[in-house]
Design brief:
about 230 residues, alpha/beta, 3-stranded antiparallel sheet, 11 strands, binds ligand BV8, binds zinc ion, histone deacetylase activity, NAD-dependent, protein-malonyllysine demalonylase activity, NAD-dependent protein deacylase, zinc, NAD+ binding
Length: about 230
């Protein structure tokens, strides 16, 4: 019997905390407030219907911030990209973040379950376009002329690739949640799926998140210290 070394299947979930040291504010740090609106109010389809200019302004501001030269991937993003190389196709990275720092650090097998800041989607034919500059309500789809919206999953909308995510959770040996407060579902429930699959579940965070008791292991500290250490 060839003694093939066992390569574990790893699923990683990241949240806003992994991008904090790159200079992108987390949701809890801004305590969910933006221009005296709660994020849950502006980041909703109803909020967009009510006041598309306000919501476009919210995303234009974050798009501009993300493209400033000082916003760079940090050691935690790079450690995950290196781990993906080492695990040769046995690592799936799911991010709740809408920034592009994981891609810029080299991660390939990546799902943006809450969408991407640097993309827009046609409200009529669902075509998706890369988008670097400000979007206004007068921008239209090149294919069908439909109006465009941020390619972002708002509260009350279904996150992307949920089937692929649940399949990976049911087959994983390790589930590692990094920099997420465990407030937002369905992402906050992934640890239970992984526990159900008898995976080793690990929380790497600045402080205990809401789902702390569901994790079998936990290491606290800044992501740029804890993640490279854990992924060694
Ligand atoms: C859905 C895009 C159903 C927008 C986002 C009542 C109870 C339970 C659930 C619900 C409920 N009412 C409504 C719901 C469902 C709702 C939800 O969960 N609401 C919450 C607020 C209660 N969820 C949804 O609506 C989801 N959709 O349920 O659909 C459905 C079913 C069928 C058919 C149709 C629909 C959609 C949710 C997606 C919303 N969109 N993002 C945008 O970005 O503008 S969520 C948004 O929140 C971001 O993605 C972000 O990632 C997330 C915030 O969470 P975190 O990433 O965890 O960030 P946070 O700031 O909270 O935490 C940061 C952590 O990092 C902290 O723990 C901190 O300690 C740590 N940290 C800080 N610095 C560091 C660090 N760690 C390490 N190092 C550091 N340096
Ligand atoms: Zn279109």
């Amino acid at each position: 019997m060839t003694n093939r070394t066992f390569t574990p299947k790893v699923v990683v979930l990241t949240g806003a905390g992994i991008s904090a040291e790159s200079g992108i504010r987390t949701f809890r740090a801004s305590d969910g407030l933006w221009e005296e609106h709660r994020i849950e109010d502006v980041a909703t389809p109803e909020g967009f219907q009510r006041n598309p200019e306000l919501v476009q302004r919210f995303y234009n501001q974050r798009r501009q911030q993300l493209q400033q030269s000082e916003i760079q991937p940090n050691a935690a993003h790079y450690a995950l990209a290196e781990l993906e190389q080492k695990l040769a196709g046995n690592l799936l990275l799911i991010t709740q973040n809408v920034d592009n720092l994981h891609e810029r650090a080299g991660s390939k097998n990546l799902i943006h379950m809450h969408g991407e800041l640097l993309k827009v989607r046609c409200q009529h034919c669902a075509s998706i376009y890369p988008w670097q500059q400000d979007i206004t309500t007068s921008d239209h789809c090149a294919k069908c002329g439909g109006s465009l919206r941020p390619h972002i999953v708002w509260f009350g909308e279904m996150p992307f690739e949920m089937q692929r995510i649940y399949q990976a959770l049911q087959q994983c040996d390790y589930f590692i949640a990094i920099g997420t407060s465990g407030n937002v579902y369905p992402a906050a429930g992934f640890v239970e799926e992984a526990n159900f699959a008898n995976a080793t579940t690990v929380e790497l965070n600045l402080e205990p998140g809401k789902g702390r008791s569901a994790f079998k292991q936990a290491y606290y500290g800044a992501a740029t210290e804890v993640v490279p250490e854990y992924c060694r």
